[in-house]
Write a structure and sequence with these properties.
- The protein has about 525 residues and is α/β, with parallel strands linked by helices.
- Helix content is about 25%, strand content about 20%.
- It has 13 helices and 26 strands.
- Strands 1, 2, 3, 12, 13, 14, 15 and 26 form an eight-stranded mixed sheet that branches.
- Helix 1 runs parallel beside helix 13 (about 515-530), helix 4 crosses helix 13 and helix 11 crosses helix 12.
- It is globular.
- The relative contact order is 0.19.
- The mean pLDDT is about 95.
Length: about 525
């Protein structure tokens, strides 16, 4: 066992939140900051937007977690990809930038989390971003994170916008402005053809600072407790165990999968879980690993009968793929420049609702399977849909006392009636858009699930057997006062001094949309809290 020189702050995980937190804390030269990342510094593909498909199942940049089989999802093991390199999942995700709705953060505040209302977090979102789109209310420039509006042009997009309007849904020029509702062009963490991960935007400019030390391929085994005080961490690098001490605080930023796992390996969590794996109970905290949520993403595919508009054709064959790659290198456009979905829709399943409750992703191609992202041999388009604020709760707990064993991930998707009803209604709304008049020229047959799947029970069965996560795990170290939570509104672990958590695991409920932007916001917010401590 070797000893690391004492630091003021030790941050475990250089992902969406951790990289932002390390950059902000190290702005003060008096703060000595150690940032530990289990993955490598980078991957050769990660800078390209298209890397979300290339790295979706690549262990060189991805933890490649899988869920346990569950009866509610046809006993499938569902992939749970998570980034394993500097920038974390911001370095492999689909590059879709969604803040969420005011109701999300006002709900957090109503749970007793002071300082987390929409009024409180909006200035943090504004401070984060450099928005390259049209100026508007609640948007800002000058922040480290560059956000652009995808600029791919395609007559299919025009038809889909018109189809949405024909189906009764409005267009929206800025879903991250005052109103989220509508069919929209996707805002992305892409600028000039490059992925804007937190590694690129926050961490790399900060790494030249002498007070910030970044250690990659460093797997944290546990936090070190002295009584009810956290004094450091134990991690492995190059096959050697290292103990690092924190003069001020340790902050876990390992995400909704990693943070509860580290807590439990450290003896913090539900006593029955810890004892089952021979771990001494150092701090009874039963909420660790509970309150797990994710978006269940259901999809459908249609053939296209007009040639040239689907990227299945534009990427068919070596010559066409070469042209798309050359287009990306010379113009920063084309297939290689796309986020996971060029168009989105935030819609209400019932007109009397106050705000949207489903999100759709609209994609101008079809894939053979979600695991490899290989394109189909024929032209088509895809719509997918998930409930924005699911109520079904799962869990993530250690499977053994070995930190290298993947934890047990249980989604419990569709346990709650409201989730089942919303999933089915959202699926039917996808069909309403795809089958509206303006799409008649383009739309061929529905390939999957097919026109024979019509009743609510049939649609629900399709969702249970084929839908997968949207890669947005949250909630396993829930922020709230009291015994049914893990951290308080200052992100301090209940009952332990010197230990905080700052990542998507602290979300009390699911934000309405993709979770990367709120995760970065938490990293920024954590920096504010630590600076004020």
């Amino acid at each position: 066992m070797s000893l690391e020189a004492q630091q003021d702050y030790i941050i475990v995980g250089a992902g969406s939140a951790g990289a932002a937190l390390a950059a902000r804390l190290s702005e003060n030269p008096a703060n000595r900051v150690l940032l530990l990342e289990a993955g490598k510094a980078s991957h050769p593909y990660s800078w390209m937007p298209a890397s979300f498909g290339l790295l979706i199942d690549n262990p060189a940049a991805n933890w490649c977690f899988r869920s346990d089989p569950e009866p509610g999802t046809h006993n499938r093991e569902i992939p749970v990809p998570r980034g394993k390199l500097l920038g974390g999942s911001s370095s492999i995700n689909g590059l879709v930038y969604v803040r969420g709705q005011p109701i999300d953060f006002n709900t957090w505040a109503q749970f007793g989390n002071r300082g987390w209302s929409w009024e409180d977090v909006l200035p943090v979102f504004e401070r984060m971003e450099h928005f390259e789109g049209p100026a508007g209310p609640q948007r800002a420039t000058g922040g480290p994170l560059r956000v652009s509006v995808q600029d791919d042009e395609n007559p299919l997009y025009d038809a889909l916008f018109a189809a949405g309007e024909a189906a009764g849904f409005k267009r929206n020029p800025d879903y991250n402005g005052p109103d989220q509702e509508g069919i929209v062009k996707t805002q992305t963490t892409i600028s000039n053809g490059r992925r804007m991960s937190t590694a690129h935007c926050y961490l790399r400019p900060a790494m030249s600072r002498p007070n910030l030390r970044v250690v990659t391929e460093a797997m944290t085994h546990k936090v070190i407790l002295e009584g009810k005080k956290c004094v450091g961490v134990r991690y492995e690098v190059g096959g050697q165990m290292v103990e690092a001490r924190a003069g001020r605080e340790v902050i876990l930023c390992s995400g909704a999968v990693g943070s509860p796992q580290i807590l439990e390996l450290s003896g913090i969590g539900r006593p029955d879980v810890l004892r089952q794996h021979g771990i001494e109970v150092l701090h009874d905290l039963p909420a660790v690993g509970e309150n797990f949520r994710d978006h269940l993403n259901a999809w459908a595919q249609w053939r296209i009968k007009v040639p040239g508009v689907s990227y299945n054709e534009r990427m068919d064959g070596l010559l066409r793929r070469g042209f798309q790659f050359l287009k990306f290198l010379t113009t920063k456009g084309g297939f290689m420049s796309l986020p996971s979905a060029p168009l989105l829709a935030f819609l209400k399943t019932r007109p009397d609702m106050d705000s949207p409750d489903v999100q759709m992703h609209i994609v101008p191609y079809v894939v053979k399977d979600r695991k490899t992202r290989r394109l189909q041999d024929w032209p088509g388009f895809t719509l997918s849909c998930y409930q924005l604020r699911p109520e079904s709760l799962g869990s993530i707990h250690i499977r053994s006392a070995n930190p290298k064993d993947q934890p047990a991930i249980r989604f419990n998707f569709l346990d709650e009636l409201v989730d089942r009803v919303t999933a089915v209604e959202g699926f039917k709304m996808m069909r309403r858009i795809a089958e509206a008049g303006p799409m008649d020229r383009y739309r061929g047959d529905e390939f999957l699930p097919g026109a024979d799947i019509q009743s609510d029970d049939e649609i629900e069965h399709w969702i249970r057997t084929r839908a997968e996560t949207a890669y947005h795990p949250i909630g396993t170290c829930r922020m709230a006062p009291g015994p049914n939570a893990v951290v308080d509104d200052h992100l301090r672990v209940h009952g332990i001094s010197g230990l905080r958590i700052a990542d998507a695991s602290i979300f009390p409920t699911m934000p309405s949309g993709n979770t990367n932007a709120p995760s970065i916001m938490v990293g920024e917010k954590a920096a504010d809290l630590l600076k004020a401590a």
